[in-house]
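Support request, please re-run this one:
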Amino acid sequence: MADFQTVRFEVESRIATITLDRPERKNAMNQALKDELRACWKRVKADPDVWVAIITGAGDAFSSGADVESLATGGFSRTDRWTELAMIEGIRDLPTPRRQLVHKPVIAAVNGVVAGFSLDLVTEADIPIASERATFVDPHVSIGYVSSHEMVNMARRVPLAVCLRMALLGSRERMTAKRAYEVGLVTEVVPHERLMPRARELAEMILTNAPLAVWGTKMGILQGLGLPFAQAEEIAAGYLEVVEQSEDHGEGPRSFVEKRKPAWKAR
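Re-run finished. Output below.
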């Protein structure tokens, strides 16, 4: 378990669980939490013992968004606010607009309110699920801010009219978990007490699959978004070619023929 002040980071059986841990502030995002969350994603990317990650919040909130007190008092670095958002690293430093995503699968377990800035953690997750108590709101325009990257990401997950309604009504409207499922923002809604067990179940299902194939599949899909079909297909084929050179690629058919569970090594 890593030593953080605002995040709990635990790894067990190849699953990293990241818990936003400022419950007294409804896990609002201040600079310390942003910095520590960034360190967590770097650990997820680099640690060979981590094959999948779950992100959730402590207490009764997932995250209430940016800590307004920090915004009002200059607690956020202005340049940092527009770089390394959520799971994405160094957007400004990239030579092209293709983003450097966390290549391992991420499950968002939304346990309560998720607002504004923190919506990225849901829209950028691969499998977002929600407690029946979860709600979603984007208050940016209600406090004088343009809703930018949050709604750009949201518009890639839900119908445009739903995105615009949320963005323009601001804090005047909250989306329920049921509605979030109906519009495709989350993939499943479960009883509150079942949220983390269900997130763990999903992570364990992922772990039964070949990790390099899972990671290559994720990247092939996401890196091709918005590109012409032929170019997107070429990117996915590149990941396929890389994975075909791995030990795990041969283990899959071999274990099937031998009627046993595959022993994946992620190499």
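The chain has two domains: 7-207, 211-257. Residues 78-99 have pLDDT under 50 and may be disordered.
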